[in-house]
Design a protein that fits this description.
The chain has about 450 residues and is of the alpha/beta class. The chain is about 45% helix and about 10% strand. β9 (about 200), α7 and β10 form a beta-alpha-beta unit. The protein binds glutamic acid. Glutamic acid binds near residues 7, 8, 9, 183 and 205.
Amino acid sequence: MTITRFAPSPTGFLHVGNLRTALMNYLIARKAGGTFILRIDDTDPERSKQEYVDAIQHDLEWLGLTWDRMERQSERLDRYAAAADALRDKARFYEAFETPVELDLKRKKQLNMGKPPVYDRAALTLSDDEKDALRAERGNGVWRFQLDHARIEWTDGILGDISIDAASVSDPVLIRGDGQVLYTLASVVDDTEMGVTHVVRGSDHVTNTATQIQIIEALGGSITTFAHHSLLTGPQGESLSKRLGSLSLRDFREQGVEPMALLSLLARLGSSDPVELRGSLEELAEHFEPARFGSAPTKFDQADLFPLTARVLHERPFEDVSGEIAGLGVPDDIAPKFWEVMRANVTTMADLAPWWEICRDGAEPIIAEEDAEFVREAMALLPDAPFDAETWSAWTSAVKDATGRKGKGLFMPLRLAVTGQARGPDMGSLMPLLHVVRAKG
Ligand code: GLU
């Protein structure tokens, strides 16, 4: 049974980088007919906010990334305490009292001596009396997991064979001085107890994975399959870390990005397969191959979402948008026709409203000075609304005969005068939807 999880910390809104992780885990579970868990990593009571938990759920629902089970780490603190006891019993857990300033000083010294800045385990040599004295002076210490200084190896689902020397990594702090359980311990306990079979996350977690493997072993759990996807960069290869806040899923939703456009792009970006617009998550899951993703940083350009969104809309049947179109005030009898004419000409649904205004009220005409006389003559030849499917061709051939103009010189000034836009739907199909042509005076 395949079990995956998406484990966001509710300390902000989900962004495109989070989505990549969520989607991969979702697709692996769905493809295998397994279980997808939404796990809220909220052991940090100061930074975790219910508002963000709600927003995470809302974003995932918008995209259709439904979860089979939801868990909150804040409700499982007793499990983490039990695991901490087990590590203590196994003598793999020790209390350390260095202040951040002292640790920083140690790191600087090591770096100066050309050594890797790995915690020196000074706390292991403290006697019980010394610990009592430090505790009395500084309060409770942090709890570190004592790594076994061997090589930690696994075959990563994306990165291939990985081997990390545990001696090059500091013993990780799993519990803070104030008793707060940190992500590494909570995550390991959850992954083990929830039977998670595949963990896919960003490559910034590779070192965590190394330490987590040893913690899982110490707790007697079985090791899951790990895969680390590359991190996203901007279109120029620039780091996205500072810009991720402005690449939130809620921003995309507000900009009118269609879920399948976003999902189709992210299911392929960074893989050796081309981006293909898919109609459903089932289809995405069927074609999803994590092993085809590469380890190189993956360029993400927000602009790519819009042509894909436009393609989603081009294929969308009227039934799916009838409510939104009625909401614009388009009368029922012309609504299907309005969608048929517009859908190939909009990038997002937001583009519909200005077009409906043009149809209902007429557009502010655009008339170049050199075309003023021509447009005046043409308007005299335009019959009054309502127009029909023949109006445009009959009108433009009459104007052609009268003025001798043809091609772009004939059509463009008329389009600009009638719609106030240089681009838009085919004029023949648009004319029957126009209630008024203001340039007619
Ligand atoms: N809460 C962690 C994060 O957001 C989860 C990482 C993981 O998937 O284990 O980075």
